[in-house]
Amino acid sequence: MRILLVGCSGFVGRALVPLLLEGGHQLVLLSRSSTPLASVQSPQLQRLQADPAVAATWQVPAVQEALASSEAVINLAGEPIAEKRWSDAHRQLLSSSRINTTRALVAAMQALPEAQRPKTLISGSAIGYYGTSSSERFREASGAGGDFLAGLCQAWEQEAQTASAFARVVILRIGIVLGPDGGALGKMLPVFRMGFGGPIGNGQQWMSWITRHDLCRLIAEALANPAYQGTYNAVAPAPCSMATFASALGQVLGRPSLLPVPAPILQLLLGDGAKVVLEGQQVLSERLQQQGFVFEDPELSAALARATT
């Protein structure tokens, strides 16, 4: 399959691109980076740089050509959620990098002659769609939350769903992605390896997670299997508390995990962005299990063992 990947040069893309290439796919990477995944060399890989004008209009000829010749599009574009304090300007960037980019992408797909339109769109979202709760269990049919992240995810998904008029649309509400070189785990590993690790905040908040390995496998399977359609919670079947997560990580690394990180420290660093880590939600992957997706990392300890090596 010939695939256009949007926003796939970061933490997930570093593993997704090699996996898709191994599967025999032809890939075009569209990234804000001038050299996305430069370490990956393959005659089946083409790279295009997306400057702000491209993201806003998708009218650059090279991008239009790539879109018209692609059978599928994977859209994981978006500024990282928990990397900076949420100033008004950063909130706008978090929103526009997802909502505006997806809107323009779907409009560009729709503007193509019917015979040239990609037939599949896989678009990212996040479990932040549900808001946060210490007691509720969220399924794909659960309603949306009322906070900033929930509103962002709703608008992001609505733009992607517009493509369902002419393409098969798969939306993945992605949980906390576990890998050694990025995401929440990437930030925790150096501290735990020095013996200073522990739960963040009160430790009771839920963590709904998935290994990067399984997330990439899921994307590849959703591309290949036309039975995948609609919204899926991209999380492993065993959500856990932050305290359980910290204890399991300490055991896997052979290090103590008793020193909690006080919430005010994280709030000082990230402002409102700290709520991504300090508050959580128990999310269930019911539709994936009904679909027959087999997780290779369904249990936390084994998942952490893979994700830390």
Kindly describe this structure:
By secondary structure, this protein is α/β, with parallel strands linked by helices. The chain has a domain at 2-177 and 210-234: 3-Layer(aba) Sandwich (Rossmann fold), CATH 3.40.50.720. It is built from 13 helices and 13 strands. The strands form four sheets. The protein has a seven-stranded parallel sheet, with helices on both faces. A two-stranded parallel ribbon has the order 6-13. Helix 1 (13-22) crosses helix 8 (212-224) and helix 5 runs parallel beside helix 6 (148-161). 44% of the residues are buried.
Sequence of secondary-structure elements: EHEEHHEHHEEHEEHEEHEEHHHEHH
Separation of termini?
Answer: 31 Å
Low-confidence stretches: none
Q: Which word captures the global form?
A: globular
Summarize the structure.
This protein is of the alpha/beta class and 309 residues long. 39% of the residues lie in helices and 17% in strands.
Keywords:
309 residues, alpha/beta, Rossmann fold, seven-stranded parallel sheet, two-stranded parallel ribbon, 39% helix
How is the secondary structure organized here?
Blueprint: E1 2-6, H1 13-22, E2 26-31, E3 45-49, H2 52-57, H3 61-68, E4 72-75, H4 88-96, H5 99-111, E5 120-126, E6 137-138, H6 148-161, E7 168-174, E8 176-178, H7 183-193, E9 206-207, E10 209-211, H8 212-224, E11 230-234, E12 240-241, H9 242-253, H10 263-270, H11 275-278, E13 282-283, H12 286-291, H13 300-307
